[in-house]
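From the pipeline queue, job 12 of 40. The input is one protein chain; the requested action is below.

Action: predict structure.
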Amino acid sequence: MMYQTYEGMDIEGTVLRIEKSSIFDGDGLRTVVFLKGCPLRCKWCSTPESYQKKIQTTLDGTITYGQIMTVEDVMVEVRKDSLFYFHSGGGVTLSGGEILAQPEFAYHILRRSCYEGINTAIESSFNADWDKIEPILGCLDTAFVDMKLMDPERHKYYTGVDNALILSNIEKAGKERRPNMKMIIRRPLIPGVNDSKEDLTALAQFLGDLKGVDHLQLLPYHRLGTDTYRKLGMEYPLAEIEVPSEEHMQWCKDITEKYVKTII
């Protein structure tokens, strides 16, 4: 089907990959568009191939990470699953990397999806200037926002960036409930890094004061992506960390749900 021209359709961005029929990145069946580029360097990151915006290849040259696509190129792929969105309540999710590393590209994909009646979601750290975030919020059904650590010095050590901007943006976005958008905060739980009672309490108290936050989602640490580090000639920094037990995950939930609705 031929679509009419629209503003922003020829804007180019670097896409890491597009995954179809995901059930973990928002409501229903979703097409997840992973963008390349991220200002954070989380020591537990499972997608090191998304760090750089440029197209990369593995050391042996057998795998290429990334391709240049226009907004309309992405929309062509997104529309292919429209029937599944309709029956499952799904849609498109932009993930990364960090989508705000390519804000104009991300905005126009979401804006066009919204115009075509496709449910929209993002996965982001909110590590960007507010003027890059605010327009995107107007095109969203769901925002999944990662909060790694509350302590600023530990946040910088484990992610490479200070968290003042992130906290400020989350506070602005969550100050008032937006009638058409869910805001879900995610905490990847890394044993020994960000799962202390002190940090979890500080996180939950911060979120408990924000009317626009629907709930907190606790995600267990995993080692997915370690093979990609090897293929890119990179060292995985947290190789000694163990996956948290179900009992520990419940202990973390017991702490945070005193202040904010929590899901694990």
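Job complete. Residues 103-115 form the longest helix (13 residues).
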